[in-house]
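EI: anyone free to look at a 186-residue chain?
SC: sure, send it
EI:
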Amino acid sequence: MELPTSWRDDTIVVSRSQIAFSGITSRALYAIIFLFVASAIALPLKAAPKNDLEIGLVAQRVVQEGMAEKLVDQSDIEPGQVIQYTAAYRNRSERTLAHLAPTLPIPHGTEFIPESAHPLPAEASIDGKTFEPYPIRRSRKLSNGLEVLVDVPASSYRALRWTAGDLTPSSTFTTSARVRIVANND
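SC: here you go
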C-alpha cells in the first residue's frame, strides 16, 4: 500500500515517511493524521489567522543496531515493530498562539508504549474522546476489602494530549511517542 509522503493545506504542512501498516487501511491512516492535525490546531486557529501554526508529523520505524537505536523510513511495517511519531508545532506568526494542546490519536492496530512519550503527556484517553490525567488510574478492590489505585494498561490508550500552553513567535513545541504494531484480529 502506498501512502503520500506529504500533505499540504493552506493552514498546515504535515510530512511523514511512506509507511504501509499491516492490517491498517490507508483510509484509517488518513483519518488518524487528520484527527491529529485537527485536534492540535483547533484552539489556536480560532484566535489566529491562517498559516500561523505549522505542524510537521513524521512516522518512522525504530530499529535496534547493536546498543543504539536508529529511526528509519520504511514502506512495510510488520506486527511487533515499533513506530515513533514525532510532531513539531512552530509558530510562524509575530504573536503568541495561546492554549496549544496537541493530541495524538493511537491508531487502531497499535499499542502505546509506556514511558516513550516526550515530554510526558498531561492527559490520556481510553476512548479517544474523554481525557484524564496521565497515567490513567482506576480504583480496584482487593480480596481483603482494601481499595488501591492501579494503572490502566497502556495498551488501552487511544490518544495522548500535551499541554503546550502559549507558543511564542518563531518558537517550536515538539512531541514524540512510540507505538507497537499489533496483529489485526478483525
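EI: Residues 1-27, 41-49 have pLDDT under 50 and may be disordered.
SC: 👍
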